[in-house]
Amino acid sequence: MTTKPFMRISLVRVLLLLSLAFAEYGIILERVSSLGINYGQVGNNLPPPEKVIDLLTSLRITKTRIYDTNPQILKAFANSKIEIVVTIENQILPLLTDPQQALRWVSSRIKPYFPATKITGIMVGNELFTDQDSSLIGYLVPAMINIHRALVQLSLDKYIQVSTPSSLAVLAESYPPSSGSFRPEVAAVMQQLLRFLDSTKSPFWINAYPYFAYKDNPTKIPVDYVLFNRNPGMTDPNTRLHYDNMLYAQVDAVNFAVMKMGYRNVEVRVSETGWPSKGDVEETGAWPTNAAVYNRNLMMRQFGGEGTPLRHNTRLEVYIFALFNEDMKPGPTSERNYGLFRPDGSMSYNLGFSSMSTIAASESFSLPSSSASKAMKKEKKSLECCTILILAMIIIQVVLPRRS
Question: Would residue 127 show up in a list of annotated catalytic residues for this protein?
């Protein structure tokens, strides 16, 4: 009997997943090149960058993003092999519309650290299209052009991409995904931005949070749909593409919006996504269990190299928000509780992967170890079993349904 091509592919997937399940350490995140994490610094009790490198290394995470060009971090990350994306703060964009100022910025903020520090991207501003100061939007693309030209002048453009992250609020429509379109008031600048990204082969970054949609409408949005759990999902009536989670639907809504502007080759990536482990009373769903499920399932999707239904042949690149809880962030309680880790290096909740990461983090942050060694050994066994169960769930939820 001839084996169907799909069955051969499924078998390879199953064997790969099961073989990796028995890897000694780094079970989930090893070899996941499309997964990064946001390293925010709005806290007064965060560990030094050297300890952060140890933590990222123990987690097998090779990409991170910071929200400035902190020289202490850039120096510390030298020779670490961790790729880092830096950010230009919104308020200095007007300055960078001067080409000479842009060259000075790159010469002083980037060139001294590269290539020892693997700077791979520069985010020009953050969520400019929805910033309260709308006057900054006009400075965005000129600043990006000048930063890119400065990189060219310094022969760094082959290594460092220039882009900017936007929030989903740039969309006028997002449901169903094929209806995705940009708001009319941002269309003119968006056209300029996409032209720049297309010409420089840079990605369009989006901050996408299914949590916000669920929080605002928990009675109508199924929690399993936003958490990547098994669920009936939804089928786009226009494309017949099926979505089993909200994040992919949100990303494809942006994909469709970009294509409607005439740009089919601009890749959409996720610069931020996450789930808070704590929130105020009115912040429905901001619980440790939901945060653990969301981030664990997202990581498993990354582990499987998935793309969205529209771009299923392109691995979706995602940066999780965030590495640490940040105690000085303003706003509701949830804003200070997106971290996978507390500032002392302990996990905010049990993600169920890589017992080594827990042990390594504990050692590098000098947490008590002698009294906890037995508990760690017990936790290691528990996490290994949990990981195997997770892999079995993925085989059932992701691989087997595709046979039909």
Answer: yes
